[in-house]
Amino acid sequence: MAKQKLPYTKIASFKTEELSENSYHIFVKVKVNESNALFIIDTGASGTVIDQPFYLQKLKSRQKTIDQEVRGLNSIQYQVQIGKLKTLTFGKEVIKNATVSCIDLAHINEAYKSKGLKIKIHGILGSDILKQHGWLIDYKNGLIGKW
């Protein structure tokens, strides 16, 4: 069978996990600065988030507190810490000086553990980066691309 020509440029591949019937999360391997990480792609998240302990311990970076609180769909309120990443790499794409929110994502990792998944995420790719860079999600082929 001939390899299908895609109508877009491939950036990275991803995998999905079914958490419950017809409920999926999309996972993509990334590099944050020089550290390997696993992110969820969440088109409903307005901004990109990095796990606060990962940011502080692994990246040894400082963050800035802002006087703003955000809520997810779960109505949990978070005080926002803002961080800056030197580089955020998705496959072939490198984003420099990305500003991200730093939030402890332990509750998400605990939810995966309770489902029997051996997954630890380090961040959430939000619609901010998807939109800014014109990226698309090709569910059929498991690819992130751009026009």
Mind explaining what this structure looks like?
It is a single chain. This protein has 147 residues and is mainly β. It is 15% helix and 51% strand. The chain contains three helices and eleven strands. The protein has helices spanning 52-58, 106-114, 127-132, and strands spanning 9-13, 15-20, 23-32, 35-41, 49-51, 64-71, 77-90, 93-103, 123-125, 135-138, 143-146. Strands 3-4-9-5-8-7 form a six-stranded mixed beta barrel. Strand 7 (77-90) and strand 8 (93-103) form a beta hairpin. It is globular.
Number of strands: 11
Largest sheet: 6 strands, mixed, barrel
Question: Please, what is the oligomeric state?
Answer: single chain
- End-to-end Cα distance, whole Å, is 25 Å
Secondary structure elements and pairings:
Layout: E1 9-13, E2 15-20, E3 23-32, E4 35-41, E5 49-51, H1 52-58, E6 64-71, E7 77-90, E8 93-103, H2 106-114, E9 123-125, H3 127-132, E10 135-138, E11 143-146
Parallel strand pairs: 4-9, 5-8
Antiparallel strand pairs: 1-11, 2-3, 3-4, 3-7, 5-9, 6-7, 7-8, 10-11
